[in-house]
Amino acid sequence: MNIRMRLESLAEPDFRAFMAKLTPNVPKENMLGVRIPNLRKLAKELAKTDWRTYLEEAKDDSFEEIMLQGLVIGYIKAELSEILIQVEQFLPKIDNWAVCDSFCAGLKLPKQYPQEMWEFIVPYLKDARPYYIRFGVVMLLDYYTDREHVKEGLALLDQIRNEDYYVKMAVAWAVSIYYIKLPDETMAYLKKNNLDDFTYNKALQKITESLKISKETKQMIRSMKRK
Asked: What is the crossing angle of helices 165-181 and 197-208, to 10°?
């Protein structure tokens, strides 16, 4: 299977232009314009074949093929230890929010191995590299926004110190998801935290953007904004 030819056959110029605006740090010449559902379909095909050879030989010369590799890892069937090796080898390739977040959404291992994956994710929340941190944060908000993990999860978010915009936005997003799911516990955190003003205010903004929050609660949340 010629992956590049498959991807080019699925490319849409208009969608390429759209994605280029959403991911300004990805060089436009590296983008083909393939929609995520089409990438997922191709990833499922590859995961049923000799995926080890594919991942070993896959090229990193387009945004879509890097995303495709991440999606394949989410679909493969293997021992947890082998999949985690693939995760570790893939992480250095992540250099934008779209690849990071689609990879996390497809990596449903926490549903099957909640404790093992929690232990795997936590060190990334303490990393210094922006997209390693974002990986940890998005995995946290995708799979661990429950009562069992809320206290430790918020504490881990509170300890993150990184000036990268996409790290701050991920932390704000995670805090907002915790609030939407566990408002009492998260409100206690919002009243006493170490978030910088930008991240804190963005978290409040994201809470107010939720359709699950009442008008009255949104007004209260807005009143908590730092000046």
From this structure: 50
In 3D space, the residue among 123, 201, 213 whose CA is nearest the CA of residue 177 turns out to be 213
Please answer whether residues 55 and 73 qualify as being in contact, where contact means their C-beta atoms are separated by less than 8 angstroms.
yes
Structural Rg of the chain based on CA atoms: 19
Q: What is the pTM of this model?
A: 0.95
User: 63, 62, 43: which is closest to 54 by C-alpha?
Assistant: 43
Give CA–CA dist 27/66, Å, rounded: 13
Token reading at 124: 């990334």
Which residue, among 138, 132, 43, has the nearest Cα to 92 in the 3D structure?
132
User: For 124-178, what is each residue's pLDDT tens digit?
Assistant: 999 999 999 999 999 999 999 999 999 999 999 999 999 999 999 999 999 999 9
155-185 burial, b if ≥16 CB within 10 A, otherwise e?
ebbbebebeeebbbbbbbbbbbbbbbebbee
CB within 8 A of 199, min separation 6: which ones?
A: 168, 171, 172, 175
CA distance 66 to 205: 31
Between CA 8 and CA 136 the distance in angstroms is: 32
